[in-house]
Specification:
The protein has about 525 residues and is of the alpha+beta class. The chain is built from twelve helices and 26 strands. It has a domain at about 30-135: Macroglobulin (MG2) domain (Immunoglobulin-like), CATH 2.60.40. A hairpin with a 5-residue loop joins strand 7 (about 110-115) and strand 8 (about 125-130). The longest helix has 15 residues, at about 1-15. InterPro entries: DMFA2_C (IPR046540). This is N,N-dimethylformamidase beta subunit.
């Protein structure tokens, strides 16, 4: 087991060296926009670098179909230097083109494709994105889909670094690494193992990365991994949403006042204090939230004063974050479950990564069924599914995979699992389903893994101030829950990979998703 893990993460470490460096000597075009969130009528600016004499831009709305809305060719090119700290401060390239966003563009996720041709005929492309808010928030749609852009930026290592490679600040004004916006072979790009692993196997995800020369982070976050699948399914089903970004919750919290339902999909890991204030205060007043996510609201983050960068010291927060010991200590960028913050994420989510962790990743985590065992089949969430007590949900497409959230529970006198309330989970939360999971720990995390402290130790230090208590987090259970908070209702699917049940056309997963959307958007 341990030999397998060392081999696996040794490959990870080696692949990491390739991230962002593979195309250093090749003809290329790279670009970004002057923000990630816009409204119709605002000006979109393009910052592009290429040695080509000219380049083209295409903008398309991404959904069940790709709708090209704007194209311009023959824009004057320019090859601009990239500063060493571009990952944190942005490259600072000049504006080479701009566009006033037309009033008739629909709210959505827009992919910007830069394309250049060299003098000898070589073609290079680069993708960026922006999210378009509604011109009339809440007037056409009752639900707001919040794209997890804070987590995109945490994993984006363009410029040489991200929050997993020892950096504490990442710019929101820089190109997006390849693979976050689109990528081939979606099933092979999944981090979760979907088949039965043989002894000593290497996950196909690693083979896929090598074949396509992608950074190792592209399976962990991004439009191509998560929200895109949800949107394609939803639009095909006739659903329509307004869109926003993580940063909108920070800088435009009033946007939430226009909606009955907020939706988050996939991997929504990085949240600021203000983001939580915005959502939690509105849940109390009647906003409903549907979390089709895992490892959500795990790290606290902050934004720079000008809103162009995101800051998180993570495991080094207690030693290096300058807010420690000040009147701003509540903004310490550690995990939300840290005792010093006294604001565990489970009070918002009903669940926490600390009590579940990972499943179906290599040899260090359970290879359980890949689905949830159902415990409350009579709940309205399961209406129309035909599921019974003890049935499995989502096994075919491994909806319980990669990163998952869970809770502490006990069994009541009728045989139902019920929350203990430990870690902030509301005691009246209803556990709909569960599946085994675990945090990486000192016994199973390989030496070559880049984090010096295992996840179980991180939890032990944060919750108890004692690293040696990590065994309390070695075994966990992913869970799907629902609960009321004030006047609002919160549903949490508890897994990053829920969307793959929609991709695979699992009728029961689809029905649960419909039930949640239909009920909570009323």
């Amino acid at each position: 087991m341990r030999k397998h893990l060392l081999t696996l993460f040794g490959m990870f470490a080696g692949l990491l060296a390739l991230a962002g460096a593979s195309f250093a000597d090749e003809f290329k075009v790279e670009g970004y926009t002057n923000g990630l969130s816009f409204a119709p009528g605002e000006t979109l600016e393009f910052h592009v670098s290429t040695p080509a004499p000219s380049y083209d831009i295409t903008i398309a709305r991404s959904g069940v179909t790709e709708e090209v809305v704007w194209r311009k060719e023959g824009i004057k090119g320019g090859d601009h230097p990239t500063p060493e700290d571009a990952y944190a401060k942005g490259p600072g390239w000049p504006v080479s083109e701009s566009l006033e966003i037309p009033a008739d563009w629909r709210s959505g996720f827009y992919i910007v494709t830069f394309r250049a041709t060299s003098e000898d005929g070589r073609i290079a492309e680069w993708e960026h994105f922006f999210v378009l808010r509604s011109a009339n928030p809440g007037q056409e749609n009752d639900a707001l889909l919040v794209i997890a852009t804070s987590t995109y930026n945490a994993y984006n290592n363009w410029g040489g670094c991200n929050l997993y490679e020892g950096c504490y600040e990442v710019s929101l004004h820089r190109p997006i690494m390849r693979g976050l916006i689109s990528k081939p072979d979606i099933e092979r790009s999944r981090i979760a193992d979907t088949g039965e692993p043989a002894e000593g196997f290497v996950p196909d995800y690693l083979n896929w990365m090598q074949e396509h020369d992608f950074p190792m982070w592209v399976g962990a976050a991004g439009w191509a991994s998560y929200e895109q699948h949800f949107v394609r399914w939803a639009e095909a089903e006739g659903y329509s949403f307004d869109y926003a970004t993580s940063e909108d919750l920070e800088f435009r919290p009033e946007l939430l006042d226009n909606y009955k339902l907020m939706i988050s999909v996939g991997h929504d890991e990085y949240w600021s204090w203000n983001m939580r204030d915005a959502v939690e205060s509105r849940i109390e007043k009647g906003l409903n939230v549907a979390w089709f996510v895992g490892n959500s609201v795990y790290w606290q983050t902050r934004y720079s004063e000008d809103g162009t960068a995101m800051i998180s010291y993570k495991n080094d927060a207690h030693e290096k974050d300058p807010v420690k010991g000040t009147d701003q200590a509540h903004l310490l960028t550690t995990i939300w479950s840290d005792r010093s913050l006294n604001r565990p994420e489970a009070s918002l989510l009903g669940l926490s990564f600390n009590y579940a962790g990972y499943t179906r990743i290599g040899g260090a985590t359970p290879h359980s069924s890949g689905g949830y065992q159902v415990y409350r089949p009579d709940h309205w969430v399961f209406e129309g599914t035909g599921l019974r007590w003890g049935d499995n949900l989502g096994v075919k497409d491994t909806i319980v995979g990669y990163e998952v959230d869970g809770l502490r529970y006990t069994i009541d006198e009728e045989g139902f699992p019920v929350p203990t309330g430990e870690g902030g989970t509301p005691k009246d939360a209803i556990i709909l389903g569960m599946a085994p999971a675990s945090l990486w720990n000192p016994e199973e995390t390989p030496e070559s893994f880049m984090a010096h402290t295992s996840d179980a130790e991180v939890a032990a230090i944060a919750l108890y101030g004692d690293r040696t208590k990590w065994p309390r987090f070695k075994r966990g259970m992913a869970a799907m829950v629902i609960f009321d908070r004030g006047e609002g209702t919160v549903f949490n699917a508890g897994s990053t990979d829920w969307v793959h049940g929609l991709v695979g056309g699992d009728a029961k997963v689809e029905q649960v998703t419909r039930n949640v959307l239909n009920r909570l958007a009323q």
